[in-house]
Amino acid sequence: TESTSEQTMIRMMVGRDLGDIYRNLDRNKTIGPVLLEVKNLVSDHVQDVSFSLHEGEVLGFAGLVGAGRTEAMRAIIGADKLQKGTVYLRGKAIVNHDPHQAMLSGIVMVPEDRKTQGILGNLDVADNITISLLDKHSNRFGVLDTSEEATIAQKGIEEFKIRTPSPHKKILELSGGNQQKCIVARWMATNPKVLILDEPTKGIDIGAKAEFYAMICAFAKQGIGVILVSSEMSEVLGLSDRIIVMRARKISGELTAADATEDKVLALAMAEE
Known about the structure:
This protein has about 270 residues and is of the alpha/beta class.
């Protein structure tokens, strides 16, 4: 069958099947108090979205294409204008709501479309990693200190095992998985409290996927609240502590990791009004 051949291919590439990859992840962590609270968010693309995210939690977002998951995340970071609703971080409302303010508050997002919204294709690896820190580490002319840039870039390359011969290699010359690691390194350099990952393993090979799964668990273990938007059911079920399911631009239900199954997620994703 197709699923059997897929599992065989995965075993050949990484020496184990997908189930083993999830089972072998280090999930030993403490889930802390509420970190992010989203109340009654309404935009042109989502209706009345409310949920909470705890410190150290991986919160999965599932749903069919067009359900509104990406749009909900864009509303949270202020990329889409809010008509109504409030985003609270550790009990404090975020005002002047836009992506820059969200980043300064500690909420960052790795977008779904790596090529058009993630990487800066005309720049090298170092610039792609450090661009999020221009405000913090640049001089009064907006120029980033070169030694500071080199240090930050090298730290990102080492920490996220980015395979590149040089920090000055054009990012477009890297594999998709390594490009994605650069984007994650960029936002992790800001020391976020909340990390939103929208389809983080889309278009990357299974070996790189396994690395990303371990990364996600490590981020949660550090106390970061992680929101994982994924169309891959195995990822949502294998990595999440809780799962929120969206349908028709609204939240249709929520499941704990212990209670979640593929059938239950699909039932919520296709539920009638």
